[in-house]
Design a protein that fits this description.
Elements lengths: L1 H16 L2 E7 L17 H4 L8 E5 L7 H6 L2 H6 L7 E5 L22 E4 L6 E4 L3 H14 L3 E5 L13 H4 L21 E3 L5 E3 L2 H10 L2 E3 L1 H16 L4 E4 L11 E7 L1 H18 L12 E3 L10 H7 L8 E5 L2 E4 L2 E3 L6 E5 L5 E5 L15 H4 L3 E3 L5 E3 L2 E4 L19 E3 L4 E4 L2 E3 L5 E2 L10 H7 L11 E5 L2 E11 L2 E5 L2 E13 L9 E4 L2 E4 L5 E4 L7 E5 L2 E2 L21 E5 L18 E3 L2 H5 L3 H6 L11
Parallel strand pairs: 1-2, 1-3, 3-6, 6-9, 12-13, 13-16, 14-17, 15-18, 16-19, 17-20, 18-21, 19-22, 20-23, 21-24, 22-25, 23-26, 24-26, 25-27, 26-28, 27-29, 28-30, 28-31, 29-32, 30-33, 32-34, 34-35
Antiparallel strand pairs: 4-5, 7-8, 10-11
Helix pairs in contact: 5-7, 8-9
Length: 626
């Protein structure tokens, strides 16, 4: 019985942890676009995933040129229908191509005409279907509901139509041919309410409203939202939303393009941004997962940029408010530099551990510019010079040694994954992957002869602009030799350091005038099989490294090692431990630790709090940073 209850509990947990899927069906204003030839066009559905956490998965099935009728007749709806699970959403937006009634397989008219025989998508026979616009929308709603899905109806986005254009619907099909626009006025004119030659009025905006009302389902007034956005921007600025492309500037549109229907990259993102709150109101269960990031980086074209560096470069200089950059899953091979002017950036992985920034430089590699070795500092994959930088769930890697490294330390030598100089830098749930010198917590090297440095030696606090304070929370850091090193003040909270081979976890170079160096609290040191490890060795005479309540394995009984072959007692280093245990929680015998390290008392250990270590003159506490 207990086993059955356990299985039921596990099943319920699996269901609750399952991501919500949002299926989108519609036309070219929503569809995914080709990235060939630097194509600038995007559908708003293509960008939608960048407005949700990874609890929501967006599957965009919208297609160019489809109407509510042709999407069904071509079997595209069946592909979606077969995937729908209870609790999934289906966003339904048609209209642009339904208006083209000259096309028998695309055009529909609002209202409720008599049913007609159409090929059934599930059985090899015809079936009577009401093929009006209302009828097709009802069909999608009914069939979504029968699968336990949740339908949400949208009306069509507005065309950027500042002139009287009776052919607006037909001109949608001219988007690739460089249409010529007429003289525009000041007022946006509606194109989705059409007066036909016989005097009848086809209102393609009211139809989805009507169906939503009659069937009791959610509706998003996207036409009004988009119209307000376009009208508010005005005649010239609103062109930036759509595919207005000058001649000879883009390979995908060499003759230029003046398109008032189809969105470009920035426009599709803005259309999503303008609509996302309305989506949250229409579908309250999605609201907790909605996010509005300033920039999105995505290799699949669903973001503002393809590379992380492009996003960094576009951030306003010396920005004083948090600027968020979402990085969609993918491997981004680039040597990333975050300069001092790009302050207050928060970089967030859409799916933690799946957004990887990697490069393969190494210290002995010859620079094509100077003809000399890159050196340790020049080998980094990522440089962070800016203050107030935060990364969440990202992976930073130097892959230079991946193929050549082995336990005998044969490989390319120093190859830094991340070099950090900035102050008030935070990493939460990030991974740092490398071999030798993985994490260069570089810091700021002030002149020890300066008055500020001399005063700090005697108890004064260094000014904030002379510090590099770094906070690492729930991170994973992998390497071999000295894989956490540098001058910075860095606090590692609940992190795991994993050693791939014999070596040293740390090589601190803490200056004499700096009160704190590297503090590890509630961390874990793990190793590959057969590895012999030291907690650290001093890169400089006043190095400080402290382990508090940490678990560790395969640490040499002496704990620490001198630099090189010098076994002279290091009387100035500040090495200490408190409460060290093995991975099973058993207290480690530290009686054979080197005489120049210390075992702290409980009271002394409590002095190494986050507030004390990182506070400085401005009382910074990263735990309070949201």
């Amino acid at each position: 019985m207990k086993k059955i209850l356990s299985l039921i509990s596990m099943s319920l947990l699996a269901i609750s942890a399952q991501a919500i899927t949002v299926f989108t069906i519609g036309d070219s204003t929503m569809a995914n676009k080709s990235l060939s030839k630097d194509n600038q066009e995007r559908g708003w559905g293509q960008m939608l995933s960048g407005f949700f956490t990874d609890d929501v998965v967006v599957e965009n099935h919208a297609l160019n040129g489809r109407s509510s009728l042709s999407f069904y007749l071509e079997g595209e709806w069946k592909k979606v229908y077969d995937k729908i699970q209870p609790g999934d959403y289906v966003f339904i937006q048609f209209g642009h191509n339904d208006e083209k009634i000259k096309s028998e397989k695309r055009g529909t008219r609002p209202g409720n005409p008599e049913p007609k025989a159409c090929p059934d998508q599930w059985e090899n026979k015809d079936k009577d279907i009401i093929t009006s616009f209302d009828g097709m929308l009802r069909l999608y709603v009914e069939q979504t509901k029968e699968k336990g899905g949740i339908p949400v109806l949208f009306n069509a986005i507005a065309r950027r139509n500042f002139f009287e254009n009776k052919n607006a619907a037909e001109e949608d099909d001219l988007f690739g041919k460089g249409t010529t626009q007429k003289q525009e006025g000041d007022t946006l004119i509606e194109t989705h309410i059409i007066t036909r030659k016989d005097g009848t009025v086809d209102d393609y905006l009211e139809a989805p409203r009507r169906v939503a009302r009659e069937m009791g389902v959610a509706f998003v007034e996207m036409n009004k939202i988009s119209k307000d956005l376009i009208q508010g921007m005005g005649i010239e600025e609103s062109k930036k939303l759509f595919c207005w492309i000058p001649e000879n500037t883009n390979l995908a549109a060499p003759k230029g393009r003046q398109d008032n229907t189809h969105l470009r990259i920035w426009g599709a993102r803005q259309m999503c941004r303008a609509t996302i709150d309305a989506i949250g109101e229409a579908a309250p269960a999605l609201k907790p997962y909605i996010r509005k990031y300033d920039f999105v980086v995505a290799k699949d074209g669903s973001g503002d940029f393809f590379t992380v560096q492009e996003a960094i470069d576009a951030v306003p200089d010396f920005n004083s408010q948090e600027f968020t950059i979402l990085v969609q899953p993918g491997i981004y091979k680039e040597k990333l530099v975050i300069p001092t002017s790009k302050t207050h950036i928060t970089m967030i992985a859409k799916s933690e551990g799946k957004s990887i920034i990697t490069y393969d430089d190494f210290s002995s590699k010859i620079s094509p510019v100077t003809g000399r070795n890159l050196g340790t500092s020049g080998s980094a994959s990522v440089y962070i010079f800016a203050n107030f930088f935060e990364a969440i769930g990202m992976v930073f890697e130097n892959s230079a040694s991946n193929e050549s490294w082995n336990k005998e330390h044969k490989g390319v030598g120093q190859a830094v994954a991340v070099l950090v100089v900035g102050d008030k830098v935070i990493f939460r749930r990030c991974k740092f992957l490398g071999h030798q010198d993985t994490l260069y917590a570089y810091g700021i090297k002030s002149d020890p002869r300066s008055d500020k440095a001399k005063a700090a030696v005697h108890g004064a606090k260094m000014p904030a602009d002379q510090l590099s304070r770094q906070y690492y929370e729930d991170c994973y850091i992998q390497g071999t030799v000295d894989y956490i090193f540098g001058w910075a003040t860095a606090y590692f909270n609940r992190c795991e350091m994993h050693s791939l081979g014999d070596g040293y976890v740390t090589a601190a170079a803490t200056p004499e005038y700096q009160t704190y160096g590297y503090i590890f609290n509630d961390c874990k040191i793990t190793t590959e099989d057969g590895v012999k490890l030291y907690l650290g060795r001093p890169w400089r005479h006043w190095a400080q490294t402290v382990f508090i309540n940490c678990q560790m394995e395969n640490i040499d009984a002496t704990g620490w090692k001198s630099w090189g072959n010098d076994e002279t007692p290091n009387t100035t280093v500040r090495y200490a431990e408190y409460g060290s245990k093995d991975l099973n929680g058993k207290k480690i015998d530290t009686k054979n630790r080197v005489v120049w390290s210390r075992q702290l008392s409980k009271k002394e250990a409590e002095e190494f709090s986050i507030a004390n270590v990182l506070g400085g003159v401005d009382d910074w506490n990263p735990v309070n940073v949201k």
